[in-house]
Amino acid sequence: MAKAFFRLQKFLRRTQFLLFFLTAAYLMAGSLLLLQRTRLVLQQSSRGTPSNQALPVPEEMSRAGITDPRTLQNPRPSPRLLVGMDALQEPALEQQHSPHWLMSRNSELRQLRRRWFHRFTSDQEPPQTAGLKAMKHTAEHKGTYMGCFTHDLRERTLKGAVFYDLRKMTVAHCQEACAERAYSYAGLAHGAECYCGNTLPAAAAAAEECSSQCKGEKRSVCGGVNRLSVYSVEQLRAAARPRRNVIYRGCFRAPENLTDTFPASLIQPNLTVEMCSEFCSKKEFPLAVMRGPECYCGYPTRRFPLRQGADGLRCSGTRNASSAAGGHYCLVYQTPVQDTRCTDRKFLTTKSKVFVALSSFPGAGNTWARHLIEHATGYYTGSYYFDGALYNKGFKGEKDHWRSRRTICVKTHESGKTEIEMFDSAILLIRNPYKSLMAEFNRKYAGHLGYATDHNWKSKEWPDFVNSYASWWASHVLEWLKYGKRLLVVHYEELKQSLIPKLKEMVEFLNVTVTEDRLLCVENNRDGNFKRSGAKQKNFEPFTQEMKDLINRYILTVDEALRGRNFSGLPREYVPR
């Protein structure tokens, strides 16, 4: 009996040890697998967002129950980082939202996180230095590859148009863009930058120095660091000619000495608009000026600012007569060539001592105002958020931390006391709430450049959107008037109507000195690449009378508050309709 009991005890001890060993082995294997996966995710996410660039989470999101990702081991981008992409931006009003809104916003954030990681992890691919020789210079590209050349941003050889697409740049996309604008050469740098021009760069570089893959076309060469992959697009120009956009600017009084005013000229019997525009495009000038058989090329300048047009009848004989109205008037056309006198931009060389906000309600033209400020001052603007679409199109300040003070001002839609008092001063951009609400609704459903569909406008989302956002429009202005330390109030409509005077005010407020020619260049490129495209509905009225009554009350409240702070009231077109 004792012997049997001893054997049983020995067996149980061995079994216990065996179970312990198997459990330990199981846990160790699971831990190794978890560490491997975590390392992979950390590597991928660190490429997309620096770990030291964590941004605070909005109070509205924390109240809605969204967890701060910085508390997790996997450093995903914070919800504030996602605002401004396709997400519905949260109003800064302390109001309770219905479960429908809460569920839709949480779902939207989850989808954005998945999209965010897909974007950054798909963009990051291990460098294949051994396979660079196998990169296609172009089997499918229609242009002729000219070689690898040096690229100096301060003294660019390809001085024409400049385009950015930090996600989808391809050789074909750059070639077509340059051909449509009548350029002869297309050059790509850093895998995402496209430059156009009519003169081939002088300094060639070794072929292996152009080693950057195109962001939108793997295994194709798109230049390198300070290197350009250059293609000739002469054969594409004929096909692109019908798509070129030559814009009639109007009839203007000619300067006293056209030869001194315009750097290039041509005298041609039976001169046509196409002939003059083609000539000026080859010379890389944005303006084609015609007076009889004379064609002049140049830029808007102090002598010829293009601000006061004349009656078109004064130019009625300009095309086919030796002179019109005694030779005092001329026809002006905008060529496809971009005015590049104001396209160079950079970060501040030293940290700004004054922290300036560019504050607006969503849909009030903040992106357009940033375009104007960047091109007028030559410095990038920052953002309280991160909008990948804007960054991909050249707003490089989007990826810079908003508190770095390396940008001339910082975009924000925030209106809380704490967020406002962080800034030393602010440009407060205000737009008609009717227009702002429609613009933000379009952005929500069709991006920065599209229009929402009829289905979107007729859905239940539109009334909910107006009820939630109309009060935010008012509270945004009221909060900034209350807590803002030093404000410059700019009305969107006045900025559009009187661009140069209002832009001068903004630039002076930012304590930057700019030349008149640079401001004229901005005026010549006033729309940038962020004008909505597509069919716009005429006489479209999405607002019910109940919506109008609500919005009109907010308009009167804001107008009274502005006047109470000794600012000019809202423009007359805001008046209740």
UniProtKB/TrEMBL annotation:
Keywords for the protein's UniProt record, in alphabetical order: Repeat
Recorded GO MF terms: sulfotransferase activity
- Where do the WSC domain residues begin and end? 142-234, 245-342
| Keyword Aminoacyl-tRNA synthetase set for record | no
One Pfam family this sequence matches: WSC
Which PROSITE patterns does the UniProt entry name for this protein? WSC
Q: PANTHER family attached here?
A: SIALATE:O-SULFOTRANSFERASE 1, WSCD FAMILY MEMBER CG9164
The record's similarity note reads: Belongs to the WSCD family.
Q: What is this protein called?
A: WSCD1 protein
